Amino acid sequence: MERVLVVGMTGAGKTTLARTLSGRLGLRHHEMDALYFTGPNWAVNDKLTEDVSRLTAEPRWIIDSLGYPEVRDLLWDRADTVIWLDYSKRVIMPRVLRRSVRRTVTREAVFGGNRETWTGWLSREHPAWWAWSQHGARRREIERRAHDPRFVPLDTLRFSHPDDTTAWLSSL
After folding, report:
1. What backbone torsions phi and psi does residue 6 show, to the nearest 5 degrees?
2. Is 90 exceeded by the pLDDT of residue 1?
3. pLDDT digits (tens, 9 = 90+) for 99-158
4. pTM above 0.90?
5. In what order do the strands lie in the sheet with 61-63?
6. What is the DSSP string of the chain?
């Protein structure tokens, strides 16, 4: 476990798990959304592919994302382990709602100095809407990749409940 992807739906706890594993395993953690959103008004990194290529050329790392489409194959090609937080909407939705309410109320700065806003909740791109509407599609995409002959050699750990993840983490 040297080059790790932590995948799952928005709100599953990918970043939290990646940070914890980073500390325990001594892997450098890279937060994909921080690499993707690099400036005000949710500006997108126009050098994302180069940045991700450089980071994943290193021998040891952990990234908390399935990957944006332009870097998805690159990430999966270079990983040796995939940790899949395959949680139900019943688990994910309260998490993403609590997080977004907290961020909106406290005006917490997130990626690129951006902030979640009350009007942002009306957008289909808002994390709560995204988590709800993309749950099935994201799950199918990860399932497809896990069975793709190119990625079958990856050590894929699939957890269907946070208790399973916690138990595994305790065993490390």
Report:
1. -110, 115
2. yes
3. 999 999 999 989 888 899 999 888 888 899 999 999 999 999 999 999 999 999 999 999
4. yes
5. 29-30, 61-63, 3-8, 81-85, 155-159
6. --EEEEEESTTS-HHHHHHHHHHHHTPPEE-HHHHHEEEGGGEE-TTHHHHHHHHHTSSSEEE-SS--TTTHHHHHHH-SEEEEE---HHHHHHHHHHHHHHHHHHT---GGG----TGGGGSTTSHHHHHHHHHHHHHHHHHHHHHSTTTTTSEEEEESSHHHHHHHHHH-
